[in-house]
Every structure is written in structure tokens, then in C-alpha cells.
Amino acid sequence: MRLLDRHMTLLSGSLRTLLQRESDRRRWADSPYAWLFQPYMGEESVAMACQVSDGQPNVVSVAAVVLSPRRVHTSRIWWATLSESPVPVSATLRRHQQLHATDTPRSPDIECLTELAEFIGNRPLVGWQLERTIEPLNGLFKRVLGFGLPNAQVDVAKLHGRQLRRLHPQVDTLESLGEALTRWRLPRLIWPSVTSEATASALLYLRLQREIALTA
User: Fold this and answer.
1) Which domain of life does this protein belong to (predicted)?
2) Which of 6, 36, 69, 87 lies in the 20 to 30 Å Cα band around 202?
């Protein structure tokens, strides 16, 4: 049962998504990006969080942090605010940076997105409501590099809901990330930055993996 749970989470996603990944793998087989489409054989994952600025959909803050089966490696983190607009920094953009704790905006060009792709590698991605969360980032990847992130994905929100239903069938599983952290007795989100959200998702994922192992 434990092995089944692990593989079911890693293979989350629609059949259409899986077929698209296979098509992209073949298309990019002879490119410098080919290794990103290969199956990952290690134990690390990358937790991600993204936020889009209100009123400026072309401004996206991103954070990615590496985690292993027993710890979150907060020293191994990538974060930035990506802005496609060439205009000077506006008050909205400055506010966005303050809210999500990022530095000088970067252009989501080939160099920047290749840097992020190489940081992530072909490791599985984890995150709270991950498919929705990384949709803006995938849009940038597709426009600039020609493909979305091909990595296996684990939605921590779905994992949380499934484990809650196992233990407490009558409990409402429609909770926020903050509520989920409280339920599993993890540190609260003090400041809603993308780095703290990515780290919190990583901690929650590790906690849920331990809980699943105990109840398998």
C-alpha cells in the first residue's frame, strides 16, 4: 500500500497531460533540454509556489526549494519576480515584490527560464494546488522555450485531502494551506511570500508522507 500511494501521487495528472509529456520528450530528444524529460531516479523533489500580481498578469513571482525524504533544504532555493513588461518599475510591481519577498524583477527570457529549468532539473514538483499554482509559469515556459514543465507533479492539497478522509471521513477537506499546516501541527505562514509558501508546502508534503507511511 505504501508503494502504491507513492506512485499514485507521482503519477497524478490527466492522461492528456501524460501524453503531452511523452510528445514533448520525443520532440526535444536531440536538444540541450532532453535530460529534463527523462525519468528521475533520485529521492529529491522541488517544492514550488507562484503568485501573479493583481492588475498585472504579466508579473509572476516564483520560488522553488529542494527537499529530500527527511528535510527541506532552505539553502537550495531559487526565487525571482518575472516581468515581461519593459516599462519602469511601477507602484504595483513594487508592492508585489514587497508582498512576495523577491528582488529586482527579471525578464522571463531564455537565459532566465533555462536557469530555473536547470535548477529544477527532472525532479518531481510538489506544491499546494500545484497545477493551478504553476499555470502562469508554464505559460511563460511555453512561449519562451516551447514546452511546459515536464516534471512529475504531486499536489499537496490533494494528498492532504485524501489523508484527512482516511482518518476523519466526516471532516471538510476543503482547507487552505494555512489551515492544513495548523491541522498537522506545522509552523504557520507568518508572511505570505512565495519562498515561505514553497517551504511550507515542502514541510507539509514530508509530514503527509510520514503519516501515510504510519497508516499504510
Assistant:
1) Bacteria
2) 36
CA–CA dist 73, 46 (Å, integer): 10
Q: What residues have CB less than 8 Å from 161, skipping those under 6 apart?
A: 173, 174
Q: Is 82 within 8 Å of 134 (Cβ atoms)?
A: no
pLDDT tens-place string over residues 140-193: 999 999 999 999 999 999 999 999 888 888 777 678 999 999 999 999 887 778
202, 65 contact by CB (below 8 A): yes
Indicate the residue type of 187.
P
Residues 6+ apart with CB under 8 A from 74: 65, 199
C-alpha cell read off for 127: 506544491
**H or E segment at 60?**
strand 56-68
